Structures
1.
Amino acid sequence: MGHLGLIIEREYLNKVTNKSFILATFLTPLIIVGFSLLIGYLTSVNNDAVKNISVVDQTGYFTNSLTNSDDLIFHFINDFDLEEAKLISKTKSDYGLLFIPYYDDLNQIADSIMFISEDAPSISIISRIEGKIERLLTNRNFEKVGLDLDKINKSKININLYQESFEGEETTKMDGIIKLVFGMILGMLLYIFIFAYGSMIMMSVIEEKTSRIVEIMISSVKPFQLMMGKILGTSLAGLTQFLVWTILIVMFSYLMTAIFGIETSTQNSELLLSSSGNMSMNTEALDMISAFIDLPLTNIFVAFLIYFIGGYLLYASLFAAIGAAVDNQTDAQQFVMPITIILVLALYVGIFTVPEDPNGTVAIIFSYIPFTSPVVMLMRIPNGVPIYEQIISIIILYLTFTLCIWVAAKIYRVGILMYGKKPSYKELIKWLKY
Amino acid sequence: MENLLVVDSVSKTFANHKALNNISISIPKESIFGLLGPNGAGKTTLIRIINQITLPDSGNVFLDNESLKPLHIKDIGYLPEERGLYPKMKVGEQALYLAQLKGMKKSDAKKQLKYWFEKFDIGEWWGKKVVELSKGMAQKVQFIVTVLHRPKLLIFDEPFSGFDPINANLIKDEILNLRNEGATVIFSTHRMESVEELCDYIALINKSNKILDGKLDEIKKQYQTNTFEVGLVTNRKSEIEKEIKNNFHTSKPTFKGLGDNLRLNILLKETQTSDELLSFLVKKAKIQHFKEVIPSANDIFIKSVKEN
């Protein structure tokens, strides 16, 4: 239909040539990259700084055994008492002062060790120090009760469970994380898209009403065409924006890294993630890649397309109907509210219930309800969902979508010519009969 | 004369009020048809039905003897009362867009627009955004967009609102021009003086019902009261007044005189003619003013709405 094409073209061009839209398109990635760069930079500054810690070890147990690491250096000033040590530590502007008093009982020592610092110390540093001291004291305790330390160390056993699915595929801990993250990204993407561009559609309908062009328009085209043109044109503009964002973010990240040699926080967090495990970095990275490949990728891709289109259009038609029913943004709030609640609920179920039990009752029910299924199902699919469940859910989604478009078109048709009053839900139902 | 548009017993009910009750009107080709009625009478609903914006509950509308269908959209040009343009779009682009939606080819639309923009002397607005235009300026653009695709049927709802007298005249002349070139015009307004000037036919709708329709001068004849305005110059004022009152039915004068000192409205009985009145008056005094009272569209409007 030529008219629909024209409307889509106008809506699209109108959006993408809008100054604030262009600004948002180019500034957002800059801001994102800039911020992650800043965070990355600050983290690295934080990590790189060597932390000097003065230690008063009255027990003498630690003086030679508390070992320095790259960023943690212990200076022993055992001859001073607490007050003097505090003064010294302060004038040297140390990271902090570790005070270990002497008692006969090891447990009493453990209870009375102090860490004194100017500012609140970082949790990770404290726990590292605690770990070191704990190990040393424990060993001393072993010796005290007459256990052979060598034998103990030798008799320790490390466990790393080999995981396999019933189909015989190897699974790892990484699988779970990847599934969770991947599902979450897909669900979030849909959620953001619905809100950002759904409300854009609503605003554009309201604008058409307030500028009173709508009657001129619908004397030339069917309200349904106008509505669909608006939805599709805005969505295309949205996709364009998303595409530009992706390209720019990737480009900026590499550019920034190349110029400043600083890793942005995203790259940093990957490193942190991989270095925190027990395994060496290489196997970890390999695991990640293989976990990714092990995902039901074709299924995810196809489902993503179907759910994204269905879910987005379902909500977009609702937003268009709301825009048609009201005169201004303030009035729109009472109708946007239920949509927000449902979407947040979907996200909540997706983030908290799905990782816990991807095939539990709650997750399954919410992946059938059409208003939550796009988000919840997208988060479930990386964990593997039977195809028949997906098909039933998709059928329900698209049936509801058809119904919703029909209802929205009815409301749109009547609403765009109504001015001056905020309709109630009761009136909206009446409009369906016009 | 052949009819371009026939509305046949159209009714429309909204949730709890009847907007149109069994309305039938016929609009002859190449005429200007005044669709009149008080606020809320149902005019806009009827116009929207003709534009296929709303569907009637019952009844039919025929354009050129064909039942109304989506294809007819390009044959109709509609200037609604509630009209506007996209504020952030450029005037030229917008006019092109609206013309294309009416089925014009882009190149044709461009050519036609150039012609109209020059005619209305607004060529320099092409690249301006609508927000930069005044209300009257935007109205001009809307008028052009309405008539650009040379539709058979033009529907104007209060076309003169927002125009100064000079531009209103410009638009009025264009409407007459378009009629002369073969278009049929439906004209909805509350301004009775423009009805008087423009309309060949009228229909009056009140409270969802049609209460009057037909050729404007025939309707006027129906509402003729055989009343004459008479202004005389005489120095025997009271004497002559008495004589007239003995022979004719008189009422208070409804006109302002100029130099006459006896002013009366005289109502003729069916047996009396204007010639008789004149020859009677000639003998009595100098006649300064003699004019039949023709009911104005305004009088007819008010009278028939009140009677209804």
2.
Amino acid sequence: MTQESWMEGTLAAPLLGAVLALIAGRSAASAIGILTALVGSAASIGLAFAVSRGGSFRYAVGGWGAPLGIDLRVDALAAVMLAMTGVVGLCISVYAVGYFRGKEAEAASSRTNTGPAWLFWPMWLMLWGGMNALYLSGDLFNIYVALEVVGISGIGLIALAGGSAIAAALRYLLLGLAGSLLYIVGVELLYAGYATLDLEQLRQRIDAQPSTWLAAALMTAGLLAKSALFPLHFWLPPAHGHALAPVSAALSALVVKTGFYLLVRLWLDVFAALGTEHVTTFLGALGAAAVLWGGVQALQQERLKMMVAYSTVAQIGYLFMLFPLASMSGSLTGALLLAVSHAMSKAALFMCAGSVLAVYGHDRIQSLQGFGALMPMTAAAFALSSISLIGLPPSGGFAGKWMLLSAALAGGAWWWAAIIVLGGLLTAAYLLRVLAFAFLEPVVASSTRAPRAMELTSLILAGMAIAMNFALLPLHDLLHAGGAR
Amino acid sequence: MSGDTLVLDLVLAGLLVFLAWRLLTLSDLFKATVLFIVFGVLLSLAWVRLNAPDVALAEAAIGAGVTGALVLDALRRLDARGPADEAQPLRLNLPRLVGALLVMGLGAFLLWSVLSLPPGWRGLSSETAAAMPRSGVVNPVTASLLNFRGYDTLLEIAVLMLAVLGVWTLNAEPMPPAEPAGPILDVLVKALLPPMVVVAGYLLWAGGHAPGGAFQGAAVLAAGGILLHLARPFNVANRGVVRLVIGFGFAVFLLVGLTLATLGGRFLELPERHAGILILMIETAAMISIALTFVVLFVGNARDNAGRDTS
């Protein structure tokens, strides 16, 4: 198959699956969901291989070409994000089948129905499609529409949990709309200044006009809010902590990366000619603050899901330390490796939390004594994910942090290095605190078991986060071949 | 610009700012809603003055019409739970003052940015004019929405679809039972519904060569549906037929794009000879889906007669 057909499959499969799942309804939605996930992830992995062989390419949707039409741009950076979404997305789909089967059994025994729970499938597939559209896009307005698809489907997915999740979903909606508004005003200003929406053409034409700086500031503020970087993180813990487990996994592992990805595109590529040193230092400083603040907050949480959600606030911070280190060789590889292994280990952690909830009926950390004996697979998944999140060898988290650390030290920026190490210690503190409970004697003998599919998927994902340790060289080669700027 | 239109523009701009201020500070939510609708109508006039009749139509139909109906509907649901129509009027405190100053500073900066644009800015109008003969339609707005940047519109239709899923997810309560429709509403429905369907069809068709199109047609069609619902309440819950119609527009658009890609073109690359008919097909499907979307947003997730949840 050609590069183009892999790309078309990546773009269209989740969108088509979403509308088919909606039309088919409750009975067939999950089957369509799994089938779509298989096709979609295969297409995105195929696309990554195609890019590593043939290099980056552009694709004019509708055949018009920029600036009149919309051009997609597939390079190594996009290919890595798409493959990450594909692999983690497939695992989330498998987990969700087990998760909702468990919910149905629960509902059947209490003679109620699961209500609109099956709407998970069309909304989740649409979320996936929105993320793929965003990573593929080379056009500022098209990215805005993709951001809206991602945002609105995320809100619906959070609201699926009902109860207190609805307030969190509403807050997410308002914040998302404010972020979109700031972003789109910036896009209009750039269009007014340069008569194009295409990222590549913009990069060539950009100059340091006041309106360009205003546009850049507005777009950055909007995207920072969407990627929940400290101090704009306040909406994330309630939203991710109250959603259903597969939804939390999707939001925390995948959705927060979209804002980061766009900021990398903008500040390390499109706006690079503006002279951006103080901006990248600022973004890095916010990242450092997020690492510390998120870590301290995670340490104080009493509920497992909230702790995992605050951990996301901290881990997002790590990614933003790429910005001040971007001129150092290996820093992009490191940050991407960190992003991918975080996606895997964070999805696994939320899956573990979901399995624990299914068995214990609550997720209060203090009362999880002996979950290692009751659910050994989940405990193993938790431990493996922790290794990668903390950054212990061998794991993707280790390799990624190592690359960032060496970039910082090579540049003589010991303070960034200190934050990276300190954040790792905080991560160890809050994750090992939970893990310690696994080895205690179980207090209650619970007869409920989490569905096998759920426990197994979390273990597989956690294992992949470890295996990412060996993805360093292939990733480096892909970035080299795909000409990611 | 002649003196008369300058005065008109100044009055219009002043009124818009005044209305916005008033509706934010009113404590009576019903009055605020009415002002919101008036604001939408005046805003569509402003779009007319800016030579954007397509946007003006959409603003009037969706911004003032459908959104206004939705806000009134929300207000009625609040009323049913007790006296909720009294809101705290906005008072100026320190955080709000800081926020207001920031927004005003931003506004001034924006204004200055716009004024510093080179005179005679033409955007992409020459590129658009050059491509028009190959677009299959005569109206450049339709060409842009359905052909040049049709992919954006495809994703926007997805957003509307997601809005319906959101309503079903929230399990929104159905409208409280309406008062029995009086004879006037009944006559109104009988008299207005047929022309509304015709107008919607006309707007859709006109989109090819004049201001109009799927979104505007859908808003008129939806208004008819809402009127009908008020006179004779019907149920548009999460059922097979309803889901099929909601997904229809997106599915047709996506499948057209994919078919063209498998036939050797690129995704959504409309061949010049068939572009006109393909656009009409996509727009018809989209109009039907969008109209039902608006109706579902208004009616919510109705329960059936037995009071069971129909989702």
